[in-house]
Each structure stands twice: as C-alpha cells, then as structure tokens.
Amino acid sequence: MITSLQDLQQQRNETSRKIGEIKREGGDADAIMAEVAAIKSKITAFEDRDRELGEQLDAILLSLPNILDAEVPQGDDESDNVLVRSHGEAVLPSFKAKDHVELGEALGMMDFAAGAKISGARFVVLKQGLARLERALAAFMLDTHTGEFGYHEVLPPALVKSETMQGTGQLPKFAEDLFHTDDDRWLIPTAEVPLTNLVAGEILDADQLPMRMTAYTPCFRAEAGSAGRDTRGMIRQHQFSKVELVSIVAPEDSAAELDRMTSCAEEILKRLGLSYRVMMLSTGDTGFSAQRTYDIEVWLPGQDEGKGMYREISSCSNCGPFQARRMKARFRNKGEKDTQFVHTLNGSGLAIGRTMIAILENYQQEDGSIRIPDALLPYMGGMTSISVDGA
Fold this sequence. Notes:
By secondary structure, the chain is an alpha+beta fold. The protein has 2 domains: 5-62, no CATH class; 78-386, BirA Bifunctional Protein, domain 2, CATH 3.30.930.10. The chain contains 11 helices and 18 strands. Helix 1 (5-24) packs antiparallel against helix 2 and helix 5 (128-147) packs across helix 11. It starts with a helix and ends in a 5-residue tail after the last strand.
C-alpha cells in the first residue's frame, strides 16, 4: 500500500530498473513503462498537494503572533498597562495651554490645508521655524544615539519588497495598514523593517553581536484600522518622520538590551526637558511581533482642551527570535557547528512629529511663541524661540 510520497518515489525507482532488465532480455517493456508513467502522475499529484498544504501551513503560521514574556501583565487593552516609572511632573502653564494645532497654525508654520490640497487628509506642510525644528530634532537624536549610545547610523530605502515586510511581521496580517505600489513594493511604516532585514538570511559570527543601528526616515501608514482616532493635528498622520533604534543580539542579552534601548529613548526626552512615563504594555495591548513592550508616554499640556494628557512617543519592544525565524537570521558561536536564531529589538528614538508636538505644547509662551529647548540650540542656527516675527 502506498502511504507517502517517499513510497511512491521508491516504487518508481524500483519499477524503472525493471524496464532496463526487460529490454536487455529483449522483452516488451511497454506495460511497465506505462506503470512508471502512472506512478509519476501520482508523484506529481502528491507534490502539488504537498505544496498546497505547505502554503496553507505557512499562512497559518504567519498569522500567529509572538509568544509573550511571562512577566507581561494580563489585560484586555491599554487601560491594563502598568506604570513602570515616571520622570518629571505633569505641569500645566499658568495660562490656558493651547494644543499644537492652534499654536502651529497661529505661527503660520503648520499648514494642514496645504497638506490636504496636495496629498489629501492627514498630511501637513511645515514651514520656516517648524521645518527647521524637525531637522534639528532629527540631527540631535542621531548625534546622541551614535555619538554616545553606540548605534551605527544607516540610511535605508523607504521602499521594500514583500518578503522584507513579511520578515518583521507586517505582512500578511497588517497589509491594509500599509501603502503598496503597483510594482509590488511597500512604503515602510517604520525603519525597523529595512534595518532588521539587513541580517535576513545571514549567519553572523557571535563576535559581531550586539549590532545596534539607528536611522532617520520617513514612515508611511494607511491607518486603516484607526477608526477616525486623532484626526486633528499631527498625532496620527499618513506620513511622518522617526528616528528608529534596532538591535540584533544573542538570546541571553535581549532582556537587558530592551532596558538599555528604552533608557536611550528616555534620555532624549530628559535632555529636551520633557516629562514622561514608562508603561509596560498588557497582553491585550502588546503588538503582534513583540514578546514585551515598553511604551514611553510624553506629557502634552495642550491636549484634552488644555487639561493635558500623556501620549505615546516611543515603543521599545523585544521580539526575541520571532522575526529571526521569519527572516532566517542566525549566528554561530566560535568553534561550534550549530547555529542559533538571533534576538531582535526595535524602538523609537523618537518619533519626530510627536516630539515636535511635545515641544510646542510644553515650551509655549503666553504670547504664542515657542521657546527652544537648550539641547536644540546648537542645531537651530542662532534661534532661541519660534515666533511669527522671529521665524
């Protein structure tokens, strides 16, 4: 009884050998040749079915999220996230705080109408002092992460292939949240995608780890699942800029690396004089590819009609071997034959637009001008504030 593809292949080989024997003896091999042809047809059918089942299995596996760390708090959503620590105080100004939209539009430097005119909803055109502030923030963050924290700067493409998106977990699950081109490329939702995939298919030497990379890139998100949230202002846009942090490490180092990465992102906020808190995400709020995630939430006094609230400005995640398995990214210890999957981590260091929002709202003056944080003064070309007259 034939029970497997291997059995069929063995039967084909044995039967094929008989053809030669029969021909050498001058016999008629037509019948046995027909039998071999029938076996080959069965093998083709088996192979087609095997391929179909393999594709179905791959689709199922690609839809499964990462296994969460045992220390991740149980919960249904963000309301069950746990406070880890906070820095600074949630202070309101002595006058009624304005939000970034009112401040930016009054300065004439944040133009949502122009963004909608040329691109549609959820785009903005920044001008003069605010355009300079965006550039200053990116340079400050990159200089700090590379000069002090050991990250290597990379400038990756903003368009990637489908297998690249699949490697870090964006595809197939989140296709509707991404922008897709006609030639089957995807606009990156974060530099995590190209940076992490730099090690896809590689077998690294253990002494190459840890690898720490940072990049300043535009990011693109369709926000198909946002259900109308944060439609006002710059908090949730289709295009935004971000300085991303990515680490590739040995398995035993990934837990400590997550703490290190989070502290690097926090240090940016500290130097900008911004108050924030760190939250460990609950099981119901942790992302698809992550084992554990810390969200950093910055204090925004202009939100909620001047009452203020904390909003996410960075997420730092340890993905363990989840992405590495999808990418086939491994390493080998010196002197060993076997390989292991690397662990991958990613975090925002920080989101530029949200950092700009935080500066506008926390450094606003009663006359509507914006004081420049001391850490950014070397990058602002002599500007100490942003105002209508002094832009």
